[in-house]
Design brief:
Largest interface: A-B, 35 and 34 residues
Keywords (chains A, B): Lyase, Pyridoxal phosphate
CATH topology of the largest domain in chain A: Rossmann fold
Protein name (chains A, B): Pyridoxal-phosphate dependent enzyme
GO molecular function (chains A, B): L-serine ammonia-lyase activity; threonine deaminase activity
Strand content of chain A: 15-25%
Helix content of chain A: 40-55%
Oligomer: homodimer
Number of helices of chain A: 14
Number of strands of chain A: 10
Strand order of the largest sheet of chain A: 1-2-10-7-8-9
Order of helices and strands of chain A: HEHEHEHEHEHEHEHEHHEHHHEH
Organism (chains A, B): Amycolatopsis iheyensis
Domain Tryptophan synthase beta chain-like PALP (chains A, B): 23-306
CATH architecture of the largest domain in chain A: 3-Layer(aba) Sandwich
Radius of gyration of chain A: 18 Å
CATH class of the largest domain in chain A: Alpha Beta
Chain lengths: 322, 322
């Protein structure tokens, strides 16, 4: 049992708090992808729910805790998916949600945050600027700041995906997980290392937004000056020390992939699996494409973490004229 | 309890026979669609499984029965999805599967039937020609013919979707179901009329392949000379009397929709739900688009029955240049 901030009993208990619409997402072999990749591929699909990403698992836990403690409002910074999920989870509990995001975030994500009734404040710059503004806003208003990956509920919510992977039959040889702030990776990783320790936990980040992967390799926080990738969902520059400490205990390797491999992954998902996914969700396939020998003949699970994508950009990446 | 050929106890028992990968498919509110449609819309997603359609539920039952009776081989005619599912279910049980299909069926469906190890025989003409050839082949070889919608297992497998819809909380005001041979419609309809009789069961067929809907309206089998629709999965011309008799007991209305409405439905699913679906799966949205007043403010479930589509054709329908 890795000695992270996460707790397996709490993760199991989380299943009783999280709205079932987010739990037990599809997990299935996708043989049409396998011919292209040379390994067995199972898809864990986190896009078929009201917010089209895995983030609802965490925000359900977060909001449950806030409401229990009598909080009436919360602020978060978001690349788009957390904000959408927090807005969704907050709405039915009468929690006043403010989301701070970069003006450059996908319009599809920003539109949905607004439609779900959250206050949306846009900032110039990237996710880290949004994070700084959210910290400021929360202090100014005396309101709880929800911090993705730092707040253990966001990790333990994501970790319920790990339970579903671990319970799915013979252990996978490897699980490929998108690496951003680290909630998804440490969450799933903690459960896998606890329950099926022989399954390799591989976390994947874009070469052009490599801060957390480089930190894992260096075993200390490494920041970057830019995070310039189409995988907007994982484009942070300032890794959180506590999350890195957890990641060091559960990840077997941290891989970096090129933008063109992410696009190739997007194309494979559409062509062979009929799935429209956002770039962060294609990091796993990108990793296989960049090192087929490593995965040859093995059974790999890829976590399709989100499907919120602006169609015009998606068409552009795929070379399709809309 | 409608007096069809189906049986609720058998349908409940079917859940123990069907591979769990086909059961408990996602069911979720899709608010991004609602703004466009003027009613509450829940999506029942039958595409996130190894054969990307609901047909696996039925073929699991069919193959279980065949193997129990010592059969070693089976033949079916298919528009593409049944063949794929029968090939999948047959493969692990050592059942020798032959699928007869029209040469005009989507390449994606035909490729997957072959890849799953079934024998594929192509015929000129449409589904009805494939059906005639399958009957001939089965007789010639003394092999069991699997007949979609006529074989009650295909209906009762599909009916497990009905259980999941009926158990999902407050009853839906209406459920929209694609109508082809009738297995899906009579299956879901039987369960809904048994468990939540106030839920309206609406079956939808393309205007250009209207045989079963016209038969329902006339209360007798009506055949057509052609079935010329992009919704290849429901394009039959010769309704089966036994299935019509069941449909008359469970459907509240049979709607016909235009091709351009089906395409509009495809576009809505992609743009607002991030879902690539085949035309048959867009019949429900097409029905809402053609009669918004009928659905205004109501809570409607649409069964997204399949996602096997040839991308070049899909792009063409959507006016996208690949």
């Amino acid at each position: 049992m890795p000695d992270t901030r996460l707790d397996l009993a709490r993760i199991r208990a989380a299943r009783r708090v999280i709205d079932p619409v987010f739990l037990d997402s599809p997990l299935y072999r996708c043989e049409a992808l396998e011919r292209e990749l040379g390994c067995r591929v199972s898809v864990k699909l986190e896009t078929a729910n009201p917010v089209r990403s895995f983030k609802g698992r965490g925000t359900e836990l977060v909001v449950h805790g806030l409401v229990e403690r009598g909080e009436r409002a919360a602020v978060c910074a978001s690349a788009g998916n957390l904000g959408q999920a927090l807005a969704w989870s907050g709405r039915d509990h009468g929690l006043d949600v403010t989301v701070v995001a970069s003006r450059a975030a996908p319009a599809a994500k920003l539109d949905r945050i607004r439609a779900l009734g959250a206050h949306l404040e846009l900032v110039d710059g990237d996710f880290e600027q949004a994070r700084a503004r959210a910290v400021h806003l929360a202090r100014e208003r005396g309101v709880r700041l929800v911090e993705d990956s730092l707040d253990v509920e966001t990790c333990e919510g994501a970790a319920t995906i790990g339970l579903e992977l671990a319970d799915a039959g013979p252990p996978f040889d490897a699980v490929l997980i998108a690496l951003g702030g680290g909630a998804l990776a440490t969450g799933i990783g903690h459960v896998l290392k606890s329950c099926v320790p022989d399954t390799e936990v591989l976390v994947v980040q874009p070469e052009r937004a490599p801060a957390m992967a480089r930190s894992w390799r260096a075993r200390r926080v490494v920041t970057t000056d830019s995070a310039d990738t189409i995988a907007d969902g994982v484009a942070g520059r300032f890794p959180i020390a506590e999350v890195l400490a957890d990641l060091l205990l559960v990840a077997d390797d941290a891989l970096l992939v090129r933008e063109e491999s992410i696009i190739a992954g997007l194309r494979l998902f559409l062509t062979h699996a009929g799935l429209v996914v956002e770039p962060s969700a294609a990091l796993g396939l990108a990793a296989i494409l960049e090192d087929r020998a490593r995965f040859e003949g093995r059974h790999v699970a890829v976590v399709v973490c989100g499907g919120n994508v602006d169609l015009p950009a998606y068409y552009r990446w795929l070379g399709v004229a809309s």
